[in-house]
Amino acid sequence: MTYHTSRRRLLGFASSLALTGALMTSGSLSQASTLPTTQQDGIETPSSDGLGVAPGQHFWDALALKPQTAWSRLREAFQWQAQWQADHRHPRVQAWIDHYRASPHNIVEITERARPWLAWITEQIETRDLPGEIALLPFIESSFDPRARSHMGATGLWQIMPRTGEALGLQRSGAWDGRLDVVSSTRAALDYIELQADQWYEGDIELSLAAYNAGAGTVNRARRIALSRGRPGHYWDLDLPAETMDYVPKLLAISAIIADPIRYGVSLPEIDEAPAFAQIPVTRALTLSEAARLAGVPQGQLAELNPGLLASRATPRQVRRLLVPAERAERLLAALETRQSPAGDGNPSIHVVQRGDTLSAIASRHAVAMVDLARWNDIQRLDTLQPGQQLTLSGR
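Structure for Membrane-bound lytic murein transglycosylase D, as requested:
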């Protein structure tokens, strides 16, 4: 079994040399890796596509009654399942299927945590024409916990190491960590997987996934040894660290269970096909409490959607967008537009920077102290004002 990208895409990273040398590792133990190893010997239920066609009911009638879900859309994006079945199931994959199915409640718990992210991640996978199975990589890496941290320093849904994150452009500061931000880290992780597949492995995604786990240096050395011994040099031919030897089999195993949950006695949580969140641009300093109040949602819900925001305040200098529940996006946008009309238009709490404005002049115009205006808007340098930038005049 060897799986390749269906297209080749060259990604322009200014820091490609740094990226090539960076090592990535899952590090921390996920819930997936701590499931019991005893096998379940119960009788399997017959394979089913989950449509539940009643006697006398036509297949297409049942299909029409079943709306698309995040799970069904993900299954449509799977590219490896048919080949894996045709290859009579690699024993390492089957061993992990038995491992996971022994504790189906753990699968349900982890997939429940995928609720806010699964539909959006699947969209990104589809856009790149990558195998849908990769959308389940966070199951292996972090148990779909965006705040997961390993003792080795890997962080976030995709468990990105600091050095690799820097090479991928994921910014970090005392107020922001792009590795924790699901949107930024997902794009970076997929970029990294595609880049390595094209740069080192002629589009071989399995080898790229192995390198994602163990580092390209480790995989390349193992591959050279395999080739010197007359082996093809595919993932399944290599002698790799134990965790990496299990990495692709784990992904194929959980994908097989998601592909046919009824067969494996798993009841997946219902997740809508549409992404659960919307992205709102941050054009002025905005606290989570203010955003939550304007959107009409609990502040804790916004904090869960924005784990990269280490402080409770978003500023344009550090954060480009805020994630909010999709059904609340229009309300928040309307509220922000009302509050961000230029000074003099009936909204004294916001000033929209015009060309030629200085912080001193703005402070004088609105009778506030310049140091307060800078503090309220997290302005570190006086020459960083940009036309269209919105400044709060009250610190709220």
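Residues 9 and 386 are 35 Å apart (CA to CA).
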